[in-house]
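Input structure tokens:
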């Protein structure tokens, strides 16, 4: 496995619980890391940099208490920052990462060498979200430690490439960590991703219906009741192509057969959330009222705690590896 040296021996399963706007919170991160997978959250899930710093301090304290009481080293945790001119908090949030030596930064949109250097200055690791080889090469030039290939069927801002082809293309020029994301929901699928030559899996949707996830209970139930056919991939809601639960799009007042042309570019931050009210009768807000999920929802049939879910994933992963050997 091409893992950053800082992560070797720290994971019970090669999985990142992906950052999710308005969904990932400290409780999820702490439970994920205690169970041995990388827990993450978007800095934008707190409305201010001060609030974001409080979450970082809370997570660090809980993980160090866990280590002291159990004698077990938890998995590292990470933060997602959207590197884009419409995000006014980039510098301030980055300073918090450096101050508290956050082990992992996941960047979306921009891959910037000065950001990577800032995280490397204290021994941290940077993974960058990409949907194709062109953006992967740019991120490699910026010096990132890992590429997260976000493929077709992912929750959030999904890509369009088939996962086999995406891993193959990224591996052809990148020999550091490759993480695959999109539609991955079971331990067997984690094993399949390892067979493809990727090192880690990033799973978002799979964690939305866990007990610790703070989203609306109706959102969790809709995930449990739905399958891949209930997902619509459209740029009409947030201005860039993303996956949403059809029923929540309809509940918001949209006509699925006549979705509007995109009129905003919503990168998914609290600022854009406040600003974004569609013209006409639809006033629902993407992410908050119009719910995102990926094709992997078919595998989600009940609400589990994070510990139960990770146990289930680990057992499916081990069984699949046994079958292969
Ligand atoms: C509700 C939701 C919100 C998301 N918000 C973000 C985000 O703020 N930043 C980000 O980089 N990715 C975000 N994503 C994408 C995830 O980090 C991850 O790439 C994706 O969930 C993987 O696909 P999967 O959902 O099929 O597992 C979001 C995904 C979902 C489902």
């Amino acid at each position: 496995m091409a893992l950053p040296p800082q992560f070797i021996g720290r994971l019970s399963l090669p999985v990142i619980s992906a950052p999710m706007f308005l969904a990932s919170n400290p409780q999820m991160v702490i439970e994920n890391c205690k169970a041995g997978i990388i827990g993450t959250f978007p800095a934008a899930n707190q409305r201010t940099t001060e609030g974001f710093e409080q979450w970082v301090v809370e997570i660090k304290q809980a993980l160090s208490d866990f280590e002291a009481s159990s004698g077990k080293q938890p998995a590292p945790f990470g933060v997602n920052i959207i590197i884009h001119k419409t995000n006014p908090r980039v510098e301030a949030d980055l300073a918090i990462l450096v101050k508290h030596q956050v082990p992992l930064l996941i960047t979306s949109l921009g891959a910037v060498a000065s950001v990577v250097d800032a995280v490397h200055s204290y021994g941290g690791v940077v993974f960058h979200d990409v949907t194709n080889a062109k953006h992967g090469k740019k991120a490699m030039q910026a010096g990132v430690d890992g590429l997260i290939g976000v493929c077709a069927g992912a929750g959030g801002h999904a890509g369009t490439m088939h996962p086999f082809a995406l891993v193959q293309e990224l591996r052809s020029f990148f020999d550091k960590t490759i993480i695959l994301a999109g539609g991955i929901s079971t331990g067997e699928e984690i094993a399949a991703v390892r067979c493809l030559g990727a090192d880690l899996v990033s799973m978002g949707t799979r964690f939305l219906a866990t007990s610790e996830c703070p989203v609306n209970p109706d959102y969790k139930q809709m995930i449990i009741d739905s399958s891949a056919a209930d997902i619509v991939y459209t740029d009409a809601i947030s201005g860039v192509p993303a996956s949403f639960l059809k029923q929540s799009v309809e509940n918001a007042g949209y006509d699925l057969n006549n979705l509007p042309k995109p009129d905003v570019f919503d990168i998914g931050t609290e600022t854009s959330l406040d600003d974004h009210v569609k013209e006409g009768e639809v006033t629902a807000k993407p992410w908050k009222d119009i719910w995102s999920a990926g094709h992997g929802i078919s595998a989600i049939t009940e609400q589990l705690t994070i510990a139960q879910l990770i146990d289930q994933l680990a057992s499916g992963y081990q069984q699949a590896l046994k079958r292969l050997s």
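The CA atoms of residues 136 and 190 lie 22 Å apart. The pocket of flavin mononucleotide is lined by residues 18-21, 23, 42, 80, 108, 129, 150, 154-156, 181-184, 202-206, 268, 292-294, 296 (CB under 6 Å).
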